[in-house]
Amino acid sequence: MIEQSKGKRQELHLLQRKLLEICGVLNVESFDSEEFLLQTELGHLTIRGQNLHIKNLNLEQGLVSIEGLVNSLSYLDPGSKSSGKGLMGKLFR
């Protein structure tokens, strides 16, 4: 049985690995052409790929669209804000 967090919503739509649409985004923590780190209603989400860039951003509605070649999506463990490769990982290497 899948446990759903009360009042929290997260939807991901990936089209042809080239367009990723996400709702439930609270903040864009960091991004570059290979990695995005987003704070979502269900935790920090890391998106990795190539030639990534923001197509659309509306934090009032919690919507983000990312274009480029998407290779992976992963949620970080609670309490962890750095994937090691992201901006914070690069600064504190």
UniProtKB/TrEMBL annotation:
A Pfam family the protein falls into: YabP
GO biological process terms on file: sporulation resulting in formation of a cellular spore
InterPro entries with a match to the protein in the record: Spore_YabP (IPR012504), Spore_YabP/YqfC (IPR022476), YabP_sf (IPR038705)
NCBIfam families: spore_yabP (TIGR02892)
Name by which UniProt lists this protein: Sporulation protein YabP
